[in-house]
Here is the input.
Amino acid sequence: MKNYDSCVTENDNEEDLRHKLETTLKKYDSVVNHADILVFECSLIKKTVTITSNLSNNLLFAADFCISLDEFINSDIIDEKDKNIVLSVPEKLRVIKATFASINVKNDNGEYVRFEAYFYGVYNDDGELTDIVGSAKDCEKKTVPPCEDKENDKLTGLLGNDCFYHNIDDILRNELDKRFSLIMIGVSGFNYISQLYGADFSDKVLRYIAFKLKKLEIFKDALITYFANDSFAVFVDTDIDLEILGFIEKIKQGISMYRHIPLKYTFGIYKSERKAVSARVICDCANIAKESVKGHHLNNAAFYSDGMRERIIEDINIENEMEKALSSGQFEMFLQPKYDISESRIVGAEALVRWNHPYKGFITPDTFIPLFERNGFVIKLDTYIWEQACKTIKRWHDMGYEPIPLSVNVSRVNVSNPYTMQTLNDLVEKYGIEKKNLELEITETVYYDDQISLIKVLSELKSEGYTLLMDDFGSGFSSLNMLKNTPFDVLKIDRKFLNETMMTEKGKKIIRHTISLSNDIGLDIVAEGVETKQQADFLLESGCHTAQGYYYSKPVDISSFEKLIGYC
Ligand code: C2E
Ligand code: CA
Ligand code: CA
Here is the structure.
């Protein structure tokens, strides 16, 4: 019989080696997935740190991720007072082959938890230390008591969390090939229900949903728990999309009202993959998927993908860095010119933020603006960019040029911020510039929210003297009819709308009519994302005189912009 244990011998052929490598990796996976430890690897050559783990009580580490050694050392993952211990590890490993240390590591709650870490050196043929590998265990983690009481959640009468995890882990351990899904169900706007009607009432809502979930009996033998705050988790033994989506539909229809309160939900689904994962991690993943659809108006369910977890880790990193990045000037204002099509002359520019990150280089706003809109930081960032724009207009004025207008983006968060107008007025006054030179771009999608207060805010800004541009027209559900009721001065045709619609003759007609109708109701038009001469010609023929896009120029830094326009 062939020897397939993982010890490598001199007689091994290539197939043996491959098999042994695979066996070793599987063993490694099974340890990492079940032993509640984190495993790390640090390359002293590439200067990177890779962490693989299943510490489900600690989201930061409940994933595989790789960062630069500098970033790791400079971050606050390791308690400041323990950094010297970590920094001394390579020296120790140059003398002895292994070492041990007790260090405090930050968890998701921002608390430092004591970890016991074992470090092993890896050496090249010359005996030089090239890598450090090892594992660490959370010493403060409490062990889960065995599951005795089946229905032990006092509030809902559902299976308690620990039992829920325990039962799932048991099932997965005993049935390795089991196909399953975990559906995380969030009650939308639950916080508002608590605030409006009080804790007793919202407890009743939760009890009602729990009762109905048990009664629905869509899947036999489903395990159900009240997960936390506004969420329930349901473990079902199918991973067929249609069945899961049918289940979701039945929840939406079957539990749609409690007394006079309509109930709406968001859903996150984790489907079985052929790899060992613990129940806690499965719940975390489904929860991440659920969170990803919060605030989306058209989509209320998402299947988990590894990219979502990476995005969350990326978001955590961004949040840790954003304040410092702003105060140390890492955010820069770029300008993209707007051209008069017939004269090929610059008539304005849009201010677009770029994050000039010390390790990652220039990062484009799509990576961080949505996060900043969720955490509110966009208020500070927008103000910073508005100030850069005002400063630039003043500088041009001081240089003796008649400044061209700069348009700045006003995030949806700032549209509903009562201090926005004051902030803008203060900046305009501070730099002594004219309001007409600072134009405000407001995205069409703010229309999903409260339209009445939106019109009020916009009217106030307009009567103060600012020019208002409706950004991304055509990307959502905007209609020209709606524009009649709002005080916009300029309509910016969305890049995707332009590109996709221009593909067909019918689409071209739609654009032509959009342009002539908006001209009719006194709106100027700027076409965004113009990439070809053919597009520019078509727009001009159709009555649109201003264009912005790569055909003319990409967004550039201020000094390049000044060269373009001839302010030197
Ligand atoms: P936006 O306001 O619609 O800005 C136009 C985006 O289209 C810019 O992307 C620009 O670089 C890109 N673009 C322009 N012409 C072309 C073209 O011909 N082809 C292609 N493929 N793309 C073109 P960017 O700079 O990555 O900005 C993305 C979005 O981030 C912006 O979309 C805006 O919504 C937001 N944003 C940028 N700066 C700020 C800011 O300071 N504050 C806020 N709140 N949002 C900002
Ligand atoms: Ca814009
Ligand atoms: Ca746009």
Summary: The first helix runs from residue 14 to 34. The chain is about 40% helix and 25% strand. The pocket of C2E (ligand 1) is lined by residues 336, 352-353, 364-366, 369, 378, 382, 385, 409, 411, 441, 471-472, 495, 528-531, 548-550, 555 (CB under 6 Å).
